[in-house]
Amino acid sequence: MSLSTIAVLFSGDNSAVAVYLLLILACLVAVFLILRNRPQDARRYLFAEVIYGTVAGALPFALAHDFFEIIQLLAYGCFLGGVAFLIICGCLARKKLKMMASMFFAIAWVVSVVGIDAFLLEPTALELTHFTIKNDKLSKPLKIAVAADLQTDNIGAYERGALKKIMDEKPDLILLAGDYLQVWSYDELNDQTKKLKQALKDTGFGAPLGVYAVMGNVEDASWPTLFSDLKGKCFEKTESIAVGEVTLTGLGFNDSFNDQLKIAPSRRMHIVFGHGPDFSLSRFDADLLIAGHTHGGQVQIPGIGPIFTFSKVPRAWAQGGLIQMDDGRTLIISRGIGLERHHAPRLRFLCRPQIVIVDVLPDKK
Which residues contact 88 (CB under 8 A, 6 or more apart)? Predict the structure, then answer.
């Protein structure tokens, strides 16, 4: 575990985090004082749980500036303060209330394991997912690489590794589904733009049929300059072009979230891609639909799926994967390579980052 990785967990550029952590520390001291004098009284532990749960759960809504910061503070309250609370309770209860102490330590262990996985392991456990589909409009195989939501504030080894993984697959066509650099000043944007362009150059990023990109949530009007050195096209508005044997439609940002979108049909294999997946709810003729945006939710609960998707598509779709739609179209939603940044906690749980490779084979009937 590197110091830089640990630093990500404690990142934050506003006073809310510092105030919240100080108040959590004060709450833990109060809990310790409440339990210390009568550690054999089981009712005091219940009282302490109510106090800590109320403080840790309510403060984020009073201190945070936005939704993502609420989630960030709750994560601190659970994975830092919560584990500390459980250990304090376990240590004080271990002499007189051994079973209760064992329960506290067991829960602390589980929460710690989840936290280590979510914050330190899964965010960089990049998965290469292969899908194979058939299409009777092609005369030869077509390999498509889909890279969505690089979404980083620092181009480093992980991002370079992701670009290299794509190139190792030797795709015929590369589709970039938005959200590339999430930074908060022009100086940072200029710096990271240079780093990204250098990483693209160093990895020989490209494909015989070109690299095609659409705009995501975190881009400004200058985003096409990120890929100005590459063969291909940045779709600043919705447009259909011929690429090899396929018609490729790249969606403008707003159109990708339009669930009533109208697109002209094509006699060739028709691929439509955008940042948001909501356009897939529209009824238009196409063969393959591709999107990102949801990050698979970043956190998925067994039996439930992603908690938040920020999309109109069904939760089962938003968690990422290949969806065979009732009308015969195929939809692929990528879980993305990166993470939500700034106020959001930088975690993934049961939702590894992902590069998607689609092998389209001729369907000879």
Answer: 28, 31, 32, 35
* Cα 241 from Cα 264, distance rounded (Å): 12
Distance of CA 154 to the CA centre of its chain: 15
CA distance 347 to 29: 28
Instruction: Give SS3 for 92.
Output: helix
Kindly give the pairing relationship between strand 288-291 and strand 269-273: parallel
pTM over 0.85: yes
Residues 6+ apart with CB under 8 A from 308: 297, 299
Q: How far is CA 161 from CA 100, 158, 184, 324, in A?
A: 46, 5, 24, 31
pLDDT tens per residue, range 296-306: 999 999 999 99
Calpha distance 182→217 (Å, rounded): 9
> Which residues, listed in sequence order, are joined to residue 359 by a DSSP beta bridge?
132, 143
Give the integer Cα–Cα distance in Å for 19 and 309. 29
Specify whether the CB–CB gap between 271 and 287 falls below 8 A: yes
Q: Which helix (H) or strand (E) holds 260?
A: none
